[in-house]
Write a structure and sequence with these properties.
63 residues, 3-stranded antiparallel beta sheet, elongated
Length: 63
């Protein structure tokens, strides 16, 4: 695809995904009394030349 606008020179955009990437996600949420809740989440991405692990945790209070 080529993008052209009057104020900037034209430039190209190329998207060629080289391989299939897998993504596994697991999450857990807990709700307690008096407005408190918390969560845990973990993500795992993988392919032939990629392996990534990410996680997050949080605590919430609603009033």
């Amino acid at each position: 695809m080529t993008i052209a606008t009057p104020d900037f020179p034209a430039f190209g955009v190329l998207d060629e995904p080289g391989e299939t990437v897998g993504d596994i996600s697991l999450g857990f949420n807990v709700t307690a009394s008096e407005g408190w809740s918390g969560f845990l989440r973990d993500n795992y991405q993988f392919s032939d030349d990629l392996e990534a692990i990410a996680g997050s945790a949080g605590l919430r209070y609603s009033w």
